[in-house]
Amino acid sequence: MDNGFFKNIEKKTGVNMKDIFELANSLQNANFKDEKTVRNVIRRVSQIANRPVAKEMEDKIVQSIVNDGKKLDFNTISQMLNKK
């Protein structure tokens, strides 16, 4: 893809695209039935987006993914980042 495209995204979101690609790569083989893994992903997304996630909200997200089987995909992550 065009490097200018990514620079525009970085400019609009304030999120480093290198961080996004590293996160996406780490998600490819992640076990989303494992609570620890899901919590680590939530914390990483929170850190990248510079948006703190309250413990109560983290617990709800973990429950919805681990127990209820909701998917954590790039769209979900994107929505979390866009709420910045």
Walk me through what this model shows.
This protein is mostly helical and 84 residues long. It has one domain (3-82). It contains five helices and no strands. It has helices at residues 3-13, 17-27, 35-49, 55-67, 74-82. Helix 2 (17-27) packs antiparallel against helix 3 (35-49) and helix 3 (35-49) packs across helix 4. It starts with a helix and ends with a helix.
Q: How would you briefly describe this protein structure?
A:
With 84 residues, this protein is mainly α. The chain has one domain (3-82). The chain has helices at residues 3-13, 17-27, 35-49, 55-67, 74-82.
Helix proportion: over 70%
Largest sheet: none
Task: Let me know the number of strands.
Answer: 0
Please give the domain count. 1
Total helical segments: 5
Structural class: mainly alpha
Strand percentage = under 5%
Low-confidence segments, ≥5 residues, pLDDT <50? none
Along the chain, the helix and strand elements come as HHHHH
Determine the mean pLDDT. Answer: 82
The backbone outline, from C-alpha atoms, is globular
Radius of gyration: 13 Å
**CA-CA gap between termini:** 24 Å
